[in-house]
Amino acid sequence: MVTVTMTVNGRQVSKEVEDRRLLVDFLREDLELTGTHVGCDTSQCGACVVHLDGKAIKSCTILAAQADGTSITTIEGLANGAELHPLQAAFKEHHGLQCGYCTPGMIMSGVDIIRRHEGQLDEDTVRHELEGNICRCTGYHNIVKAILAAAQEMHGEVRQAAE
């Protein structure tokens, strides 16, 4: 057993866990933050994406002990109280979800994409960078529209696709 201490969604938590405990299981089972989903157990689907120290990671690929001392943001910590994050609102407005299973991971990945490509985002970039996130329902079109709409709202511009 090992004691891990980290900040999760702005709140410091400290728990004793098995040293082999995955971060995704720690978040879901120990902290009851079930918005982070387990989809494939093989690091391929992206349903478990969270932000570790501000960067998107697949929480099924890291042990809780490796996250000791870090800051984690899950889908539950993205909104500002009752006000949705701009990307959450864009997913709603642009019908970027259907069954909703991949949605938390898609949104967390999308926020990271927008942050890293501030003002320099286009459809091709979004589609390329979402390759690590699988959606079996939507066909991605509305997810991409939502990410581009949120990027425009947050940064004022997006690049047009090359002709």
UniProtKB/TrEMBL annotation:
EC number(s) from the headed UniProt entry: 1.2.7.4
Q: Name one GO molecular function term.
A: anaerobic carbon-monoxide dehydrogenase activity
According to the record, the signal peptide region is none
2Fe-2S ferredoxin-type domain location is 2-78
Transmembrane segments annotated in the record for this chain? none
Report the domain of life of the source organism.
Bacteria
Q: Matching InterPro entries, A to Z?
A: 2Fe-2S-bd (IPR002888), 2Fe-2S-bd_dom_sf (IPR036884), 2Fe-2S_ferredoxin-like_sf (IPR036010), 2Fe-2S_ferredoxin-type (IPR001041), Beta-grasp_dom_sf (IPR012675), Diverse_Oxidoreductases (IPR051452)
Q: Which Pfam families match?
A: Fer2, Fer2_2
Keyword terms of this UniProt record = 2Fe-2S, Iron, Iron-sulfur, Metal-binding, Oxidoreductase
Q: Work out whether the entry's keyword set contains Ribosomal protein.
A: no
The entry's protein name is Carbon-monoxide dehydrogenase small subunit
